Amino acid sequence: MKNKVLPVVMTTFLAAGLIAGCSDKDSGSGSGTSTNASTTEAGGKTDTAGGEEAALTSIPLPITTEPITIDYWRANDAKLTASLQNFGEMAAYKKKEELTGIKVNWTHPPLGQQGDQFNLLVSTNDMPDVIYYNWASAVGGPEKMLADGRIIRLNEYIDKYAPNLKKLIDSDPDIKKQISLDDGTIYMFPYIRSDARKLNGTSGLVLRKDWLDKLNLSVPKTIDDWYNVLKAFREKDPNGNGKKDELPLTGKDGAGTLNRLNDFAPAFGVLGGFQFKDGAIVYGPLQPEYKQFIETMTKWYAEELVDPEIITNDGKAFDYKITSNLVGAYSGGVFSGMGKYYNLMKEANPSFSLAGAAWPIGPAGKSYATFNLGGKVLTYGEAITSSADKDKIKYIVQWMDFNYSPQGHDLFNFGIEGESYTKEGDTIKFTDQIMNNPKLTYDQALAAYALSIMDGPMDQDSRYLDALLAYPEQKEANTIWMGADDSLTLPGLRFTEDESRLNASVMTPISTYVSEMVTKFITGKTPITEYDKFTKTIQSMGIDQITKIYEDSYKRYQSR
Amino acid sequence: MELIRQERAADSAAVPRGRITFLRRELVRNKYLYLMLVPVLAYYLIFHYGPMYGLMMAFQKSYSPVKGIFAGTWVGLDNFTTFFNSYYFWRLLRNTLVLSFYSIVLGFPAPIILALLLHEVRSKAFKRTVQTVSYLPHFISVVVIVGMLSTFSALDGGLFNVIRSLFGYEPMMFFTEQNMFRPMYILSNIWQGAGWSSIIFLAALANIDSQLYEAAKIDGAGRWKQLLHVTLPGIMPTMIVMLILRLGAVMNADVQKILLMQTASTYEVSDVISTFVYRSGVLEANYTYSTAIGLLNGVVNFTLLVVANAISRKANSSSLW
Amino acid sequence: MKQSFGERLFDGMNYLFLSLVIVVSAYPMLYIFNSSVSDPNELLHSRSFMFWPEGFQLDAYKQVFHNPKIYSGYMNTLFYVVFGTAFNLLMTALAAYALSRSDLYGRRFMMKLITFTMFFGGGMIPTFLLVQNLGLVNNRLALILPAAISTFYFIIMKTNFESIPGEMLESAKLDGANDFIILFRIVLPVSKAILAVMTLYYAVDHWNDYMGPLLYLRHQDLYPIQIILRDILLSNSMEAMGPGADTGFAIGENIKYATIIISTIPIMLVYPFIQKYFVQGALIGAVKQ
């Protein structure tokens, strides 16, 4: 969380840039783009441009007969580049151009380099009209981008020209809350998941179902069940090679820490970071329950139930261990943690099967998720820059709103009907063009048609997920994970610039200290008797200041 | 020697007599040299000093693309004090310096030794083979190198652990063993870089006047004596200049490599200034803070270089200026 | 001349040690090459040391070369390497020769001015804005002009020039040669070894340059091979394949290794050609010319 709101006062003097001084074009809107609602340049401009136009109720097709081209910048996606060069070649965008009559000029930075490229882009004055980005990772966050006059406020435009997005906002109070910044500004056409729980609940704990069956065990529910299952995996040679080489629990991408084990912390009602506890915001590792969690993990580690390389496993090592029948349980997703291994193992080991498991049951008999399942508005979205021609903005807004219209919704979620998908009643089925493509994997094939498999400005439809989950175990896992209770987790909060600075300077040493000490406790290098000293040190490092920041930010969130 | 004295004379002569006359005469005398320096200085002024105003960000709160650097909010030394007061400041400084110290002690001589050994090889074909092969690892990216180290370190069937077991040792986790971090980091750097860096010394060796060797042989010097009295003095200026430059990089560490190699179990020795700053996430989010850290590193590095250069100059041997 | 026992022992040990260096240095490349041609499935399942390939396929190479951008990438890189290095050598030689002359007034000041830039710079954004204001964005010159001199290499070259006997320059001067003639007719010809090193170092830097094109180029037709290969690599990584990756497509790991081989082989071949300049006594031979 490194986002800042620049105080409104500071926005008054924007045009004074010496280095990256404003061009004439945006000095007008730059100084006027106040984050305060009432009289914005946006509203004013529309009046002069078109008088008192009535708000649109649907997007006219074509949107305009004038020849209009939108300059659009977004990161490329490896799934798409497997077969296409840019997003304009995607079937959905081609169709959109045909329908709306608006052309798009796409610019993509080289794969994986969007961060630097974005920072350069917003430092100059010839920005494209539209930028699609993860705004939470923009320097200073969207608040600063608005305050600096890089992107424009969209509330008034949405009221007038974006009937479909407006309908989504008005019909769902969660979306309304999450799409706005703390001061009520809407700055983007976001990546939305209105069916949030289902689409967010796609990862969790996974076990080898065939191992459970072989040992006559059922999917573990409580933390004690987990212990018994892992113990049996270790002792009873479920892979049947006569060697005690099973790694009951492992994981990957742990960034050199044991943070992966935090998946078991909810069994004690705690998480590894900031969380709700009895209605208050607290820091997990300071809670006495976290000590119990550490003790349990220490025991597991000492009894070799945890792969010691869980700290260092990269994707390659992880794939090797799973496909070599060494691993009993791990945390993963429906696709990359389940479907992938089913595909890799279907020939080598036909009996290979997996089961998703709920987080072990915690206080009040509930299974608590380690992450927020209710996030409906993601931080990704398309914003209009101050370089966009003022007269063009209303068309751009309509063009962007098209993705949320019924027609655009199907187009960007499923592609072209009859070509990439068929509809039977309400059910979606992808065609062989997607599911059995001779040259591409199904996600690469779908990426050539629609956005749903990647990310983008749309309301992602959970039916795309149903259509892609080929194995019943994947669907079951999804159902289990989405049913978890996420009341321990915090919603997506926004921090002011000063809060972010404090957070970076105070929280980095604390996080370093915590991951270092947790690793030492669990691997037995430091005795658990030192735990009180550990919590005292965290306090002395200034954790209370950070808790205060979280409380303040949450208050602002609630009053949105 | 002669030239240095001349220069000093020239320098000191400049002040008392008419400076202008002196400069004019000097400009005429060395007009072609100054002409050569015109594009060089233009390059440095435009491309290096031109953007240097960016350093001011170190004293500001945040950078705003539109307002530009001159209009930021000034916070004085806040960015520095935040870092100095950080809980881990001393550990980070210590680790940065210790890692650099070992890198210099072990890593600096490696390419020189390799070059000297190659110098003693008489078979041309063998010499060229070693040269060509030893510089190959330079072309492999850090990500791939660390990925290979990780594969070799696997508990179950990793090359390093297989070798350990040949000698009857238990397998170990190299990446979580605190004592293994520095050796792994430094040795893999040598492995990757020694062949590449030795090229400079091979060129310096080629420049040694072969008559000197002939003369030494006539004096009855064996190969060891030739090494001490001809070879080493011949490459001494290059060695000293390289060492001075290396000392001017003590605060630099290969962030990407350390980030890939470090684990929470080894933070005690592996966490250096740059990795810590990187982990705080401020590098992407906060130019002012990262500029401040960069400036701090630059000051320490530059100071060390100036000191090392002065010492070397005093000792009457090579120096940068 | 007859060798003593000690000398023969040393030679033996030396050959042995350097052979070990060959093995240790060649191993990673061998590992990478063998991995690139191994069967993807075997690659996933084995913990082989890759002394030889596990199974065999060339699909990874086929897939990479199937991409038409590879060829324009190679041509662009060739352009940057050839013209970039030539310009580097010219600028560096001018700087190194002028500043190696200790009778030059202001030499120390200029050296300090230049060395200072090794430690302090304006950072990415001011540099980018400068390049943009000079109109160099999307221009091939953006990869050549801003990197005209590497201060590190310049210092090495200057140190080498300083070791050239002063008498050589003096006598040329007495013959009436000006500094340009001295540099190009006397200094450079006797400095073939260091010129060869500089050529290699600069060429490799241009070859490997990734950040420059990333920051300054927007048109794909200008991209060098490194950017193109990385795009291919990322498009085919196991992570990018995500859920759909099954054995038929799991060639991402092979492609990763294949791109290393493809991007390394051409530049690797440069070194053996310049080694002939590292011959003992090149200096003296040239003096006598």
Q: Return the CATH class of chain C.
A: Mainly Alpha
- Percentage of β-strand residues of chain C: under 5%
Largest sheet of chain A: 6 strands, mixed
The helix-and-strand class of chain C reads: mainly alpha
Strand count, sense and closure of the main sheet of chain C? none
Helix coverage percent of chain C = 55-70%
* Shape summary of chain A: globular
Which protein chains are joined by the largest interface, and how many residues does each one contribute? B-C, 102 and 94 residues
Number of helices of chain A: 24
Tell me the count of domains of chain A. Answer: 2
CATH architecture of chain C: Orthogonal Bundle
List keywords for this structure.
A: 560 residues; alpha/beta; D-Maltodextrin-Binding Protein, domain 2; 2 domains; six-stranded mixed beta sheet; four-stranded mixed beta sheet; 41% helix; globular; B: mainly alpha; MetI-like fold; 17 helices; flat; MetI-like (chain B); transmembrane helix (chain B); transport (chain B)
Please describe what this structure looks like.
The complex is a heterotrimer of chains A (560), B (321) and C (289). Chain A is built from 24 helices and 14 strands. With 560 residues, chain A is α/β, with parallel strands linked by helices. Chain A folds into two domains: 212 residues, Periplasmic binding protein-like II (D-Maltodextrin-Binding Protein, domain 2); 245 residues, D-Maltodextrin-Binding Protein, domain 2. In chain A, a hairpin with a 2-residue loop joins β12 and β13. In chain A, 54% of the residues are buried. Chain B has 321 residues and is mainly α. Chain B is built from 17 helices and no strands. In chain B, α10 crosses α12. The radius of gyration of chain B is 25 Å and the shape is flat. In chain C, α4 packs antiparallel against α10 and α12 packs antiparallel against α14. Chain C has one domain: MetI-like (MetI-like fold, Orthogonal Bundle). The two termini of chain C are 30 Å apart. Chain C is mostly helical. Chain C has 16 helices and no strands.
